[in-house]
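Section 5.1 Outputs to date
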Amino acid sequence: MNATVSLSRLEDTARRLATAVQGPQHRVEHYLSDQFLPPGVVVGLPDVQGEGSGGFCLWRVTWPLVVVVARASSERLAQAQLLALLEHTLTGLRILPDAQVTQATYQPVTVAGQEHPAYRVLVQVIV
C-alpha cells in the first residue's frame, strides 16, 4: 500500500467538499482573502494524520470549513442568516459517504478589518 496521501487525492476531496456545500445564495472559496464578500463557505487547508502499521496506512484528513455571513442590522438577523447557512452546509456534507462532521464551533472571523459572524466546521475524511 502507498503510505502517502497524493496531492491529487487532496485536491479531489477539496473539490468534492466545495461542491457539496455550494449554493445559489453564497460563494465557496479556498482561502479567506481581504476581498472575500460574505456570505460564503471557505474550504481551508487540511490537517493530515496517518494511522496504521505493516505497510497499510489510513490517512485521517481533517478539513476546516469556515461558514461566514455579513454583519447585519441586528444581531438576531445575523444569527438567523448564519444558522441558515450552517444548516445548508451540514446538509450538503451529508451526501458525502466518506465525510463526517466532527465539530462546529462559533468563531467570528475578521475580513479586511471587519469582524463577521462565523462557524468553524471540522470535517474528517479517511483516504
